[in-house]
Structures are given as structure tokens and as C-alpha cells.
Amino acid sequence: MALVTRYINTASSAGGDGTTNGTTGANRAYVSMAEWEAAENTDLVTATDTHIVYCSGTAADTSNCDNSGWTTDATYFVTISGNPSSGTGYNDTGIYSTSFYRLDPASGHTFTCRSAADSWVVEKLQLRQTDGNRRVFEAQNGTDDWTIRKCIIRGEGEKTIKSRLDWIIQNNVIDGRGVGKIGISCEGGANLIYNNVITGFTDTGINANGNAITSKNNAVFNNADDFRNIGSATVDYNASDDLDGTNAVNISPWADAFTDYTTYDYSPKDASSVLVGAGIGSATDSNVPTEDLTGTIRSTSAPSIGAIEFVATVFLATITESVVGLDSVSSLATLGSSVAESATGTDEVSSLTTFGSSVAESATGTDEVSSLATFGSSVAELATGADSVSSLATLGSSVAESAIGADEVSSLATISLSVAESATGTDEVSSLATISLSVAESATGTDEVSSLFTVNSSVAELAIGTDQISSLATIALSVVESAIGADLINSTGVFGSSVIETSIGSDLITCNLLWEVIDTFETADWNNINASQSVTWGAVNTESATDWGNINASQTVTWSDVSTDVDPNWSNINTKE
Asked: CA-to-CA distance for 58 and 561, rounded, in angstroms?
């Protein structure tokens, strides 16, 4: 048994042997599907071979595939696939594009499926049919065990998929574009139709024709009739306009379900989409695909309905960010080993963000707001203006966001696991970030700065202002925190290990202060501390004078394991307990 690998590349020319994806030389790729099929047509069962052909190229392949003459079965079969190693092969966006290989025949069925050639797999392709009397898949009598998956199909002809015995149709976008008549016409056998988007057909989305098909987790909408002749069919966990079957989900309004159905983007819009978590999972039904059209792993318990799984933000790296100054802002954000962000200037803000391998963004101006950086699945956003700046980032992966303004700045980032956020202004700055794994947040202003974050690990925070600073950090480990202000410091820090924290102010500290494992080589000045609750220093070690003067606490002041190389000054300590 052998695996035979061949290539089709529309940038090639006829006459190659298809053994490489090159476009020159005797071993260059086949130029079309028809050239490949004619050259390789064989009896795979007798040869005990399996055959895979990878397709790529931006020019349309206007040929078609009639597999008459092939002999295959469930063990020795053909796979036709978009080339995942080529930038023009596998389109994993779910949106039809002329930047990728597409089989778009000038005449005839796109695929004519003969009975002797069972068990073919067609995957990761873009397919189109515009002939009003032709199909993308035309199954002849007895054709068995075809699998169509992860394809983007424009069915602008009569029947997009005419299936026969035991076909598997999953993770496809099947779009009639308001022209095609029928999405899937099941004309025999127990087809398994899972996690497809089927839309835009003038007659029917899925016509079971009375056969015992199974349709689950499909988004079937904007058709004259979403389902037809489903008497013997299992229709379960589908989202549709007609609410056919059991556990049906009302997909209307479409604009709330999809990112942008008007531009054929059929990914779930956001976490609130009715598609998200509404399907049946592979843990319950083993026929549910474990991946989606893009290759994303699906939830095994409650996957999204449709071809594309909704994925919440996953961002596992550590972020460190700081902002210092009244008119000048400088910030640095480091995410694992791959992100840096900075902004500096008095009236000008410049920001550089590098995520992974490749993006830079900057925006400057007094009255102007400009922001844009999109790379991979990450986003960096910066906005600055003289009057009012508001920014909102809600996205599928990582976010770095900054905002600066003269009057008011409000910023909100809602992300599953990770945020870097910074804000500064002359009147008021408010910011909120709640993240599971890593956060860095800083803020500075002349009137009031308030910040809140809750983080599991790896946090650095710095805040400076002339009137009031309020900060709260609850962190498991690896923390450095400091706060300095002229009037009021309100700081609570509860840390497990590896912590250095200092808080110095002339008037008042209002909450518990817990410092552990303090080690300094210079003078530690704890002067003029007034605390409404307990003040605790544990395992303090300094190599120069420590001034503990004028400490006033309403509860216990505790020092344990304090070690200094010179005499400490413990003068004027006053506690109420």
C-alpha cells in the first residue's frame, strides 16, 4: 500500500507530471483538475494505493472532474484538498475569495460522481457552479460514501449537492447567493449533514426527499424553505428561520447571529450569538466533527451551530505596562516574548506594538483620533484627542489599548484572558480590566485616577498623581507594586510570595498593609504613615537605616523577623491596639 501525492497549481502550465507544486520543469504541478484526473485515473483497489491531490493558485480552474474510470473503496480512495502549505490553497476564512484556488467550471457539473468510484473525500476547496441546470456534486446511481468537508461552495445552479448513499457533509459554507435553487438534495441513503451553513436558495436549503438523513448543528436560513420532506429524517439542534425539527434555534435576526451575513461572513458574531454553545457535542454524538471549517477544535459538549466555532479570547502571556508623567506618557507592554508597546510625548502620543513577528502602529494628534492595527488574531488600539476619547475593544484574541485626552477618557476592554490597558487625562481617568491570567494597567492624571484589576499571576503596576490614587491588586505571586501621591494613597496588597511593596505618603493610608520578604540596600523610610487598620511588615531586611517614625495605626502594628545592618528609628509609633 502506498500514498500517492500529486499537485494542481493554476499558475503552472500543462505537461507537468504533478509530483511537485512547482510551476516550471518536468515535475511541475498539473495546471487543472481535468489534467490531473486524466493523467492519474486508475484502479486504486487493485494497486492498493490511496491518492491525495493538493490544489492551489489564484487563477480560477475552469475545468471539472468526472471520475469515470476510477475504482476506489473505503480503504483505497482519493482525497482532493486545498493545499494547506500554499498561501493560495486552503481558504480557512469561510468567505469565498479569488485569492485562493477555486474550481469554477465553464460547463458541466463540477464533480460527476460515478458508482465505481466510491469513498472520495473533497475538502478545503472553494467550489462554484453557475450553470442553471448543473450541480457542484452530481451523484450517479449507487455512488456511496463521499465526504465533503471544510469547503466554501457557491451553488448558483440547480442543485448544489445531489447526494446518494451514506454521504458525509460537514463544516461547509453552502451559499446559493440568491440564485441557486437547492442547497442539498438527498436522493438516497442515510446522509450525515453536520455543522454547515446553508443559505440563499430560492427553493430549499435541505430537501431530505423522505430519506432517513441526519441533520444536526446546521445554520439553515434565508431560503424559500429551510427544510423540506423531512418525515423520516432526524433534524435536531439546527438553527433556522422555520424552526424545523427538535431543539430548534431561532436564527433571526441574522445580523445578531453572524459577524456580517451581508458580506458572507457566517462566523458567530460574538458570545451573545444564538449559535454559540447551542449545538450538540461530539461527547454525545460521535458524528459531530471535532474541528470546524477553520481547523479550530470544537467544544465537545456545546459547540457552535454552523461551520465556524466561536472561540473566546485565549492569551496566556504576561503583560507589563506603565504610564508615568502628567503631560508625557511612556508605556511598555511585554507579552511573553512577543509583544512590546510604548507611547511617549507631551501633546503627542506615539505607540509601537509588536505582536509575535510583525506589526507596528502609531497615532498622533491633538484633536484627531486615529487607531488601527490588526494582525493575526491580535489587536492593538490607541486613541488620543483633546476633548473626549472613548474606546471599546471586544475581540477574539489579545488586546492592547491606550487612550489619552484632555477632559475625559473612558476605556473598556472585555476580553477572556488578557488585557493591556493604559489611560491618562487631566480631569478623570477610569479603567476596568478583569482577566484570568495576565494584566498590566497603569493610569496617571492631575485630579483622580482609579484602577481595579484582579489577576492570578505576574502583575506589575505603577500609578502616580497629584491628588488621589486608588489601587487594588489581588495577586497570587510575582508582584512589584508602588504608589506615591501628595494627598491620599489607598492601597491594599495581599500577596503569596516573592513580593516587594512600598507605599509612602504624607497624609493617610486607609487599608491593611501587608509586606513580606522586604529586602533593600538603601534607607527604608516608613515615615508619616497613618493607617485605619493593621500595618504588618514581615521578614524585613535592610542594609542601611530604616526610619519607622510617626506611624499611627488604629489596629496592630506588627514587625517580625526584622533585620537591619544599622539602628532603625522606631520613634513616634502610636497604635490603638
From this structure: 72
Domain carrying residue 50 = 1-122
The residue among 279, 310, 341 that closes a domain is: 310
Same domain, 236 and 326: no
DSSP codes of every residue in 148-195: EES-EEEE-SSEEEEE-BT-EEES-EEE-TTT-SEEEEE-SS--EEES
Would 103 be classed as within a structural domain? yes
Residues 189 and 319 occupy one common structural domain: no
- Does residue 448 fall inside a structural domain? no
Same domain, 199 and 334: no
Number of neighbours of residue 88 by Cβ within 10 angstroms? 20
Task: Return the amino acid letter for 499.
Answer: V
Place of cell 438527498: 186
Q: The pTM is what?
A: 0.59
Do residues 144 and 171 lie in contact, with contact meaning Cβ atoms separated by under 8 Å?
no
C-alpha 78/C-alpha 53 separation (Å) is 8
Q: How many domains does the chain have?
A: 4
The answer to whether residues 496 and 509 belong to one domain is yes
Same domain (yes/no): 336, 302: no
Provide the residue-wise pLDDT of the chain in tens; the chain has 577 residues. 799 999 999 999 999 999 999 999 999 999 999 999 999 999 999 999 999 999 999 999 999 999 999 999 999 999 999 999 999 999 999 999 999 999 999 889 999 998 777 899 999 999 999 988 899 999 987 778 899 999 999 999 999 999 988 899 999 999 999 999 999 999 988 999 999 999 999 999 999 999 999 999 999 999 999 999 999 999 999 999 999 999 999 999 999 999 999 999 999 999 999 999 999 999 999 999 999 999 999 999 999 999 999 997 654 433 333 333 333 323 333 333 333 333 433 333 333 333 333 333 333 333 332 333 333 333 333 333 333 333 443 333 343 434 433 333 334 433 333 434 444 444 443 444 333 334 344 444 444 434 443 433 343 433 444 434 344 444 333 334 444 433 343 444 333 333 333 344 333 444 455 555 555 555 666 666 776 666 676 666 666 667 777 777 666 666 766 666 666 767 666 665 5
184 and 298 co-located in one domain: yes
Instruction: Assess contact for 530 and 506: CB atoms under 8 A.
Output: no
Identify the DSSP state of 357: T
Cell of 397: 484574541
Residue 391 corresponds to which amino acid?
Answer: S
Distance in angstroms (rounded) separating the CA atoms of residues 55 and 47 = 24
Residue 5's SS3 state is strand
211, 233 Cβ separation under 8 angstroms: yes
